Amino acid sequence: MRVLFTIIPARSHLNQVVPVAWALQSAGHDVRVASNPEMAEAIVAAGLHAVRLGDEVDLAAMVRAAGTDRRLGDIVQALELDADDHDRRIALRHYLLAPFALHYPDEPPPGGRALVDELVEFARSWRPDLVLWDGLWFPAPVAARACGAAQGRLLWGLDHVGWARQRFLERLRLPGGGPREDLMAAMTRPTLSRLGMEFDEELLTGQWSIDPTPVGMRLPVGLRYLSMRWVPYNGAAPLPEWLRKPPERTRVCLTLGVSERQFFSDSAPLISALLEAARSSDIEWVATLDRSQLAELGTLPDNVRAVDYVPLNQLLPGCSAIIHHGGSGTFVSAVAHRVPQLVIPKEGGDYANLAKHAVGYGAGIALDRTGLTARDVATALFRLLNEPSFQDGANALHADQLATPTPCDLVPVLEELAGEHTRASSPAPWKEDGDHHPWNGT
Hints:
It is built from 20 helices and 13 strands. α1 links the parallel β1 and β2 (30-35). The model is unreliable at 261-265 and 424-442 (pLDDT under 50). The strands form 2 sheets. It has a 7-stranded parallel beta sheet with strand order 3-2-1-4-5-6-7, with helices on both faces. The chain is globular. It is α/β, with parallel strands linked by helices.
């Protein structure tokens, strides 16, 4: 079976793909990972075949552009979110629908081909049997349809896009009170019409979705989900000498994740407060900070070891706690190694949801970063390190993860689904009748 993965150009999204790709590759399947050119080196370093498509993308600029895109504003407004649903509004407008706007522009890009055309061309040439796509890489289901492949999303967090689509359709059916047209479908039509296709729900939410999110955290969305244990992958590196033996005193990991470095520029005050808390403690802190972050901070406390990069799978086994921003990759790494968590969530996305999930299990403490002081951090960290209930909660969270199917367990399921949904006939012509949806939204 030929399997094509597609991801947005973000290292954290590649990390989610790697264990699933390894499982399929180890089972004898031919695997490719397609993304923008800047991801090729990281894909190859993970032992996978990279397919370069399109141009390099400035994700931070894409997020900023989403804030002024009238089409996205109209969609979010039509959802009529609750006034206090601030995080979801930010997540949808700036992070989750931004790639939707990028890949479904009103007009083709001047002077060059759209990325969807390149992906369609590759898919029709290589002819994958299955396309597994990052839920934000919307050209992927189009390419799957063009070549007759089965396709499903590989989620990395809460299915806000599926939730938003469901809510939009509910609002659309309201007599007289909701939106007058399907704004999301309308955004796709210039591109789909040019490719000879018609819109249907599979082009937004897939034929099914692989979901690593704990069942208790999931949003109430009527789609088909395949539960999968999120096996953390943080990259690979030589084991540093200082990690070859157990720590001589209590060790704490401080990390704000790759995304904080890439997309957010306001982390310096937070890091300063955290390091001030470290200065007054008698424990070893290992802080994953790059040169630009260190340049803003001055002299570090003597008990802080700053490392630009070390895989969390190497570092966390020797840690008694972790302080982080609520990123899903960091969260699941802490769960895998049964480490209690002090979470200081970023606005938007799943940061606050993951923090609440850890707190609900008694596996961590969440702090609001607004007005955060070194005393707040020190007090919370003292509790995390000295109250045994937090380790009990981390153990329980870990046990729940072990009860979920691994990527290897999912391989025969994916083989069966690919056989069921791969179109037996030639994919040309590309136009579909639009009436086929395998689970009818259940």
